[in-house]
Write a sequence for this structure.
């Protein structure tokens, strides 16, 4: 099925009072604004500050989901953007998260329980500088990545 | 753009870390445990109108927003010296019972069950809710999702939103419930009681009737002999929303109790040199290090603690479950930490029964859910039991109600010392001189950690940056000899 026929959701995840942990949400808000400008009403944009079991509800019913979230990997610089395959999460990390469940488990559980889970999941991570100080603004290093991330998403939908 | 694959030994920032130092003989000398903590809370709320704080703190934690909302709400009532009307308190407690349902269902089925239903040695790729569902049946999975959703729906009906509530006000709440909503909640509560009973039965069938699991629970690998703290009503029965905070000693005897505003008389915090973590302990007893026993001020705050610190449950089915709990485990207090998972299920049943009870209360749908404050705001403390332990919010304001001081002790913080000690104990059992260390290590350590249902810094997203656990074993020189990453 081509992308044009897929039901697509762009999902920003994060926490907007934890400084860079909000970047996924800020990105999708800008994506939504741009989509409105160009009259694209066929793409759904959603924000989620909760994960775990909620992922089942957030993902099911969509053919394709693009997720944006903050990450923290030691070899990346703040503001760097990476793409991650769900399969990578599945084989390289244990499926456990500290609380509830993580993305690969939610996907597999949804399929097991007969939910219509997406065929295609694309995950973008933006390297955070600080996710532990309370604050409602991005660090400049991370804010600088937002326009590029927005463009990247618009180019693939 | 860079594509990244996650290598199991990739160093992940923002993770929980356990460092195990070996002695010269290859046994465990010490265990240190660190997690990143939230910074800048006081600065963040400084100058904010204090009645805004309950709306902001819900977003500190994606897992227990309701707990923060209510603790902060109670603190704000205290700041304004206003007592909400009975309907408001009952509504808040009803809402909170639904939150406990949702949280305990999620923890038990997504995390705890896998260890028992599948076994601690099972394939890690299956040792999660997916494996549980595949083993106990798809219908159970459907019921889990359904009842978790029911609990969230009750929260939404009562407070207006299912997550991140915007509901408490100084002196009460912003909305009540209609008669139709009340009747709907009654039906949902009845279904939840049945599901809670089912969950306890599942635990009985799969865990208690399995000798290997029962032996694991009763073994001394997961055991601590500490004080316990829990909130109780006027008859010393567990209450999640309000009451006296009762502290019992390692023999189960009450040593003292305190009301919300008295917490600083009894709880103080220590910071260790190697860690920025705070380790709360009982002031009256004193800090003697990471040791248990009646001379050490280390205490636990968990579902097990709540049962140990109380004299019973306030609803009949939960009371029966409580009695069976103690008669199976040899009386009060229970020191076997894996029993915390069972205690969580006893609380699940209480939460469901309490939800039903409150939904049937004649005052619950009354329109009288707010008392307007009239006093000048000053200072207040609000304490509730979060699913993972006692939660304390404390604010001071100027005469206009703008925050000048804020302090928070979150549920898991109470347990920093016990978690460290439980991990060390498990590590000492697993790491023996000359014995090969493998994946079994991480799981034994995880079990010690996971039973506390820990919630650290509460980043809410679900990608790898979300609190993975790194366990490192170091020789006496500090060289890493083994590393496992969750």
């Amino acid at each position: 099925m081509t992308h044009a026929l897929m039901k697509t959701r762009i999902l920003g995840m994060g926490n907007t009072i934890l400084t860079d942990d909000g970047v996924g949400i800020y990105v999708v808000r800008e994506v939504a604004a741009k989509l409105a400008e160009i009259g694209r009403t066929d793409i759904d944009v959603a924000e989620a500050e909760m994960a775990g079991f909620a992922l089942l509800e957030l993902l099911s019913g969509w053919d394709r989901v693009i997720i944006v979230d903050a990450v923290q990997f030691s070899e990346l610089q703040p503001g760097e953007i990476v793409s991650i395959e769900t399969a990578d999460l599945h084989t390289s990390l244990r499926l456990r998260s500290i609380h509830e469940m993580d993305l690969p488990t939610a996907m597999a559980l949804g399929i097991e329980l007969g939910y219509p889970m997406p065929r295609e999941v694309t995950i973008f991570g933006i390297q955070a500088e600080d996710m532990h100080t309370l604050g409602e603004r991005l660090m400049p290093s991370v804010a600088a990545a937002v326009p590029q991330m927005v463009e990247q998403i618009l180019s693939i939908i | 753009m860079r594509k990244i694959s996650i290598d199991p030994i990739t160093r992940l920032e923002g993770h929980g870390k356990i460092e195990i130092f070996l002695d010269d003989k290859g046994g465990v000398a010490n265990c240190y445990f660190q997690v990143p903590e939230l910074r800048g809370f006081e600065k963040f709320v400084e100058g904010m109108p204090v009645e805004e704080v309950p709306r902001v703190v819900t977003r500190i934690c994606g897992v227990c927003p309701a707990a923060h909302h209510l603790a902060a709400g109670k603190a704000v009532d205290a700041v304004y010296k206003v007592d909400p009307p009975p309907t408001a308190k009952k509504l808040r407690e009803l809402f909170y019972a639904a939150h406990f349902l949702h949280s305990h269902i999620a923890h038990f089925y997504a995390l705890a069950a896998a260890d028992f239903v599948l076994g601690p040695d099972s394939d890690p790729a299956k040792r999660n809710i997916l494996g549980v569902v595949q083993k106990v049946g798809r219908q159970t999975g459907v019921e889990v999702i359904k009842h978790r959703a029911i609990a969230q729906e009750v929260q939404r009906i009562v407070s207006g939103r299912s997550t991140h509530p915007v509901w408490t006000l100084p002196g009460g709440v912003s909305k009540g419930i209609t008669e139709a909503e009340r009747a709907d909640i009654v039906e949902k509560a009845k279904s939840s009681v049945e599901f809670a009973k089912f969950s306890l039965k599942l635990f009985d069938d799969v865990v208690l009737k399995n000798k290997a699991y029962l032996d694991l629970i009763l073994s001394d690998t997961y055991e601590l002999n500490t004080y316990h703290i829990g909130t109780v009503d006027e008859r010393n029965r567990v209450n999640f929303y309000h009451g006296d905070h009762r502290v019992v000693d390692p023999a189960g005897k009450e040593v003292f109790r305190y009301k919300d505003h008295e917490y600083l008389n009894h709880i103080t915090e220590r910071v260790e040199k190697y860690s920025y973590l705070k380790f709360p302990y009982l002031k009256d007893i004193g800090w003697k290090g990471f040791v248990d026993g009646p001379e050490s001020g280390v205490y636990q705050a968990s579902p097990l603690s709540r049962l140990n610190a109380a004299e019973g449950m306030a609803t009949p089915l939960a009371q029966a479950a409580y009695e069976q709990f103690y008669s199976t485990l040899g009386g009060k207090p229970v020191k076997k930490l894996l029993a915390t998972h069972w205690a969580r299920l006893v609380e699940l049943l209480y939460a469901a029964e309490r939800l039903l009870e409150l939904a049937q209360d004649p005052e619950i749908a009354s329109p009288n859910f707010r008392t307007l404050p009239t006093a000048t705001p000053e200072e207040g403390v609000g304490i509730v039991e979060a699913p993972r332990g006692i939660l304390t919010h404390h604010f001071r304001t100027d005469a206009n109600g703008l925050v000048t001081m804020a302090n928070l002790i979150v549920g898991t913080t109470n347990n920093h010392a016990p978690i460290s000690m439980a991990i060390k104990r498990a590590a000492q059992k697993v790491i023996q001189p000359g014995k090969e260390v493998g994946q079994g290590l991480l799981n034994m350590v995880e079990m010690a950690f996971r039973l506390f249902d820990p919630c650290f810094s509460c980043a809410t997203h679900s990608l790898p940056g979300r609190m993975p656990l790194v366990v490192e074993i170091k020789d006496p020189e500090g060289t890493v000899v083994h590393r496992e990453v969750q």
Remarks:
- Chain A has six helices and five strands.
- The longest helix of chain A spans residues 23-37.
- Chain A touches chain B through 61 residues (CB under 8 Å).
